[in-house]
Specification:
The protein is α/β, with parallel strands linked by helices and 318 residues long. It is 37% helix and 14% strand. It has a single domain, classed as TIM Barrel (Alpha-Beta Barrel). The chain is globular and about 55 Å long. The chain starts with a strand and ends in a 5-residue tail after the last helix.
Length: 318
């Protein structure tokens, strides 16, 4: 395993992290989750990412049970808050009240005294940025959170909160968690350079585009019965990548990877990690075999010629 510093902090995380969005506490049971977490840990994965909203808390609860016998100091547990957890008008967003109460609910579900990274799952236009920043600062001073970050925040908001934290002498965020893959390269324009300037590392999610970039979905063919796209527990978001042009792009990736003696999975992940401003890629897996396919991307280089070929198939944003 390789490790990179998360932003300008001293925290080092594995370049491949394990997520729990649609799998842990959802598509796989607790026994399978325990085996998956153990396999990840044995291979050097130290970053385990979840959120309170994942299956309404079940993602956190299942992850907490799976890591309870692992050495806590070797884990980087990351969770998030923002999305509604009930019909209560205050049980959502990034107000001081919601951030505080959500964190303590997450700690209880995870079975831990602190989280290493607490992330604002989205930007909240209804809450002053300073209120959220102060809430995070106070949680850090209390020892319940070690670092905080953002997720899917636009570049201007990242710059705003970092400048505010510096001016007010508050703990600033060290990370952002954006959507990034060969289909979705929008962060290259502003989010990556702004974050680098402000000291935030990127923990990118959906680097395989919900599995489409593995090449397992063929244009014009039936969905594989055991695939995410065919599973109603996991297919809520994969449809955006199942149009024929995207499936054809994915097959071009398969051919390019084959010519390079690798797989589409490894090439797609290596593409994300080629940029040192990307600290880690969050992958999902249902078992150790799927996880290993992702881990095999660690250390694979993207040379200039290969980058040019990838840019031809998946054009960079204008």
């Amino acid at each position: 395993m390789l490790y990179r510093h998360l932003g300008a902090s001293g925290l080092r995380v594995s370049v491949v992290g394990l997520g729990s969005w649609l799998t842990i506490g959802n598509a796989i049971d607790q026994q399978a989750t325990g085996k998956l977490i153990a396999a990840a840990f044995d291979h050097g994965v130290n970053l385990f990412d979840t959120a309170d909203v994942y299956n309404h808390g079940e993602g956190e609860r299942a992850l907490g049970l799976a890591v309870r016998d692992l050495p806590r100091h070797r884990l980087v547990l990351a969770t998030k808050c923002f999305f509604p957890m009930s019909d209560d008008p205050n049980d959502r967003g990034l107000s001081r009240k919601h951030v505080h109460e959500s964190l303590h609910a997450s700690l209880k579900r995870l079975g831990t005294d602190y989280v290493d990274l607490y992330q604002c799952h989205r930007f909240d236009p209804e809450t002053p940025v300073l209120e959220t920043a102060r809430a995070m600062h106070d949680l850090i001073r209390a020892g319940h959170v070690l670092y905080w970050g953002t997720s899917q925040w636009p570049a201007d908001r990242i710059a705003e909160v970092v400048e505010l934290c510096r001016r007010e002498h508050l703990h600033a965020p060290i990370s952002n968690q954006p959507l990034y893959n060969l289909f979705e390269r929008g962060i290259e324009t502003a989010v990556l350079p702004t974050s680098a300037r402000c000291g935030l590392g990127q923990i990118v999610y959906s680097p395989l585009a919900q599995g489409v970039l593995t090449g397992k979905y063929l244009p014009g063919a039936e969905l594989p019965a055991d695939s995410r796209a065919a599973d109603p527990k996991q297919n809520q978001f994969v449809g955006r990548y199942l149009a024929r042009p995207q499936l054809e792009q994915a097959q071009q990736l398969v051919e390019l990877a084959r010519a390079r003696g690798t797989t589409a999975t490894q090439l797609a992940l290596a593409f994300c990690l080629r940029d040192l401003r990307v600290t880690s890629v969050i992958v999902g897996a249902r078992n150790a075999v799927q996880l290993q396919h992702s881990l095999d991307a660690v250390g694979r280089a993207i040379d200039a010629a290969l980058q040019q070929q990838l840019d031809h198939i998946f054009p960079a944003p204008a």
